[in-house]
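re: the backbone from monday

yeah here it is again, tokenized this time
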């Protein structure tokens, strides 16, 4: 039986950029963020009650063999994954929900996303009902890829990752963005809004992940911040860390 809802045709948003990541202790974060704030300002989505930050929740998909997890651990250069993202812990009808596909080739990332109807989450999260998305989101390549990949690789929701993000944007280069992500939490879950019995666990307590996103190059002033604070890039995935924290997969390397 077809779901009792009208077809929708959301616009797909596409992002193409490079992403560098850095691990910061609390004291180092304070130093680096203070320097960044002289050149950049908060983006328009921050909330004062969260100290000029916003909440992020991502539900990641993988299969029982944790193929996406091990592709990252094994250093596979070209890889992709799907997630559902929102910006509140509890369901609120005015808060958007997105299906996102993130593809990586080395340091280069392309991300594609569409806003989805929260009433359709059950079709995205239930492998037995995923085919109903063909009717709800017909002729949308991103959803077609999600259905095809989910069926081919036996994907299903595996892990939720929450964190608080403080984002900075540049008035001089709209393609340059720096975010500070902290208070990471992870939980094994099969849907975006699990019940209160879900076992949430701290991930990387006391540390911040700084993500630097840019289109062509990093500004000279930011290079100086990197050099003066002896910052070292690292390969890090919130999805992988969430899988490990929740006991869903183990790094055997």
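seq for it, each position gets an aa:
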């Amino acid at each position: 039986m077809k779901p009792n809802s009208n077809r929708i045709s959301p616009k797909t948003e596409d992002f193409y950029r490079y992403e560098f990541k850095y691990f910061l202790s609390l004291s180092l974060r304070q130093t680096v963020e203070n320097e960044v704030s002289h050149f950049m300002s908060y983006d328009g989505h921050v909330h004062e009650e969260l100290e000029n930050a916003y909440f992020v929740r991502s539900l990641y998909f993988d299969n029982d063999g944790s193929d996406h997890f091990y592709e990252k651990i094994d250093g596979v250069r070209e890889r992709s994954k799907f997630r559902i993202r929102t910006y509140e812990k509890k369901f609120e009808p005015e808060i958007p929900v997105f299906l996102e596909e993130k593809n990586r080739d080395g340091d280069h990332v392309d991300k594609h996303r569409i806003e989805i109807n929260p009433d359709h989450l059950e079709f995205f999260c239930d492998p037995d009902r995923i085919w109903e998305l063909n009717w709800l989101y017909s002729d949308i390549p991103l959803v077609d890829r999600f259905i095809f990949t989910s069926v081919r690789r036996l994907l299903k929701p595996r892990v939720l990752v929450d964190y608080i993000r403080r984002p900075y944007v540049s008035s001089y280069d709209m393609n340059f963005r720096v975010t500070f992500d902290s208070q990471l939490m992870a939980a094994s879950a099969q849907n975006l809004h699990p019940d209160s019995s879900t076992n949430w666990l701290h991930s990387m307590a006391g540390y911040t992940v700084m993500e630097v996103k840019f289109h062509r190059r990093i500004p000279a002033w930011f290079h100086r911040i990197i050099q003066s604070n002896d910052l070292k890039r690292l390969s890090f995935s919130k999805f992988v860390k969430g899988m490990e924290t929740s006991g869903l997969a183990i790094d055997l390397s």
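The chain is about 25% helix and 35% strand. The first strand starts at residue 13 and ends at 25.
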